[in-house]
Amino acid sequence: xxxxxxxxxxxxxxxxxxxxxxxxxxxxxxxxxxxxxxxxxxxxxxxxxxxxxxxxxxxxxxxxxxxxxxxxxxxxxxxxxxxxxxxxxxxxxxxxxxxxxxxxxxxxxxxxxxxxxxxxxxxxxxxxxxxxxxxxxxxxxxxxxxxxxxxxxxxx
Length: 156
Ligand SMILES: [Zn+2]
What we know:
Elements: H1 8-12, E1 15-18, E2 22-26, E3 36-40, H2 52-73, E4 77-82, E5 97-102, H3 132-148, H4 150-154
Antiparallel strand pairs: 1-2, 2-3, 3-5, 4-5
Helix pairs in contact: 2-3
The chain binds zinc ion.
Zinc ion (ZN) binds at residues 3, 5-6, 43, 94.
């Protein structure tokens, strides 16, 4: 079965930040503005399968993605979540962390998603898939933030 996150063409169009090991993509159905995913470039099923280099660098990359997503959302608070396995709500079998900017009374505050099973997971909340032009606009902004804060991101 083809892995959606290993499909380079598909991913490239949603990508706004990357290094040698990881990339940050914008969720096609953001539950809040700025809802992004951090994924290893290598196909890795789970957290325990990361190699030495990935283990050493994953948190730094998540921090950079948080920085970009918060600036984009004009937010100061966030969730970082990992759903691993179908019973935890994982829908794509390639390790991915959710980076979700949060604000009071946002869409996500209606869901106890961390307890939900797969039929009620993050991907299946009632949020709509963004229209192509809205996604493009968001990605342009996210890429601009990443580019214009390159030096600051380097230190995270
Ligand atoms: Zn994959």
